[in-house]
Amino acid sequence: MVVEIAAVVLSWRLEPEYDTLVYAVAGLTTVGAGAVIAQHRPENPIGWLFCGFGLYNATAADLLQGWGLRAAAEAWPGGPLAEWITSSSWLISGYGWTLTFLLFPTGRLPGPRWRPVPWVGALGLMLGTAGWSLSPGRGRDFSSGRNPWAVESLPTGLLLAVGMPLFLGALIAAVLSLAVRFRNTSGLERQQLKWFVLAASVAGVVLPITFALWYVTPAVGVLAALALSALPLAAGAAILRYRLYDIDLFISRTVAYATLSVALAAAYGVLIICLGTLLGRSSGWATAAATVVCAILFHPLRHRIQDAVDRRFNRSRYDALRRMTLFLDEVRGGRRAPEDVQPVLREIFADPDLELLVFLPESQRYVDLAGHPRDEDDRHRIVIERGGDPIGVVLHDSPAAFSPELLRRVVEQGGLAVEIARLRAEVRLQLSEVEASRARIVAAGNAERRRIERDLHDGAQQRLVSIGLALRHAQHQLGPARDAVGATLDRAVAEVGVAIGELRELAHGLPPALLDAGLGPAFHDLARRAPLPVSVQVPGERFDPGVETAAYFICCEGITNAVKHANASQVALAVRCQQQRLLVTVTDDGIGGADARRGTGLTGLADRIAVLGGTFHIHSRPGNGTTLTAELPCGS
Fold first, then answer.
1. What is the pLDDT of residues 299-329, one digit of tens each?
2. Tens of pLDDT along 138-183?
3. Which helix (H) or strand (E) holds 351?
4. Which end of the chain has fewer CB within 10 Å, C or N?
5. Which residues contact 133 (CB under 8 A, 6 or more apart)?
6. DSSP assignment, residue 397?
7. Among residues 634, 548, 600, 635, which one has the least CA distance to residue 618?
8. DSSP character at residue 62
9. Which residues are CB-contacts of 501 (< 8 A; sequence separation ≥ 6)?
10. The overall pTM is greater than 0.90
């Protein structure tokens, strides 16, 4: 920085100011990029290389040039020597770029076959520098108009004829090594090469033009400085991986808009010529019509060109967006569920752990697509918004093959599917809450029915039995003398018996106390009290009380139907647990033909099972008996 400041002070107003400043910026850019690379990647020689030839350029090309100009203007000493060193400094700088091209981005040669290239370039550098700096024809590089160190007897032309091809050949070979690396690499290194190859391509076009026009139009030197400034910046961004994947978007957008501009300009020119021929060259209608046509063509043409460019220059972006577009078409056509957006994102980004969470505004929490509440973890996250309001978040591990911009673009494109999936998850969560509420109501009802059964059995029923016994005892005490009183007592005892029977009938629809000990005791008690043979096959393990109660009533309803409606001679009760589902079957050998749609107790039974998240099936053909099958989530 000190050297460049001194160079600017020495050269100021002795050459175009823009030339002085642009080359100072170029020198600082090279050394600055090299210093940052060397600090963060000290094992990579490219950072030290930038520092080295960047400092050399600042000294030999800028500072000594300023000294030469100032010496010529104010008769300072050493002016010709400074100009002589400056005149050939570009060769050493060029050799620095040859080494950079060969070593980028890893700091190692692409392979053993590239080892001769630096030595050939070094030989060409020595011969070319000698021929260039000692040639009598370099007088235009000196204020005096002649080269004071020219050697007339030296074959400088031959040295240039041999040295420059070797020097330029090594430079071209180094550029080709970038192409070889680019073809043979993938992933991270390929992205690094994209940055540098783009800058090198620009420099490869600009530098030969500026070299050819250097003495014709000195202003082209500014283009050379800008092109050389882009190279270290691109190298630094690539090596340090700063916004590494933005290059894909930059390249595709640059090529797309350049192509679009050329196409629209060509269309505008053709329309102007054609309409001008028809309407007259000075007609304003021709210009207006051509402008309107180009404006109409802009959007469709841009999309078509962008797709074509992405297919060629940004294939990963094109494939990812295309895959999401196809998925959305399938969702609109009803061929895919919106919840499939998560596996589609996993497939696109090759991240099997990618997870999509949707935001529920009422509860202000994130849930997965099944409606289960989830907490965010420390993975990378992409928030999906619509109208400024969050609708979801994608948690991912930032796959190396995709840029954050592309991740966000694909996720946002799938926002419609995410929004639908969010609404469905919200409905699913509400339904699960309703089912849980219904289950709690059923559980509370069962508990209340058990309490009533116990109260009836231990309270009113026992009291009625005691009253009946007391009345019968009083009748015996009266003896045969009180016939009228005895008849009254008989009727009272009969009424008490009817009341006890009604209470027993009422208690029959309540879960027995034996159910507290498990399905086995309750089922065996049910089989013992049934008026026909009942076989029982029940596991000894325990299940959720609500599930056990539902299983009990399924069997009660099955036995009741077999006795009252099916005229069955036997019933089989079977319970087994498989894959966390409790399978309950009641089979009889009756007349069949049962139908839950007729409003029997089977309808209420189906509702009870549905509350618990189970399924209920009836298989009952006329003359072939009836089989009731219920599947309940047992969670064991």
1. 788 777 777 766 655 566 667 777 888 888 8
2. 888 888 888 888 888 889 889 999 999 999 999 899 988 888 888 8
3. none
4. N
5. 84, 87, 88, 147, 149
6. -
7. 600
8. I
9. none
10. no
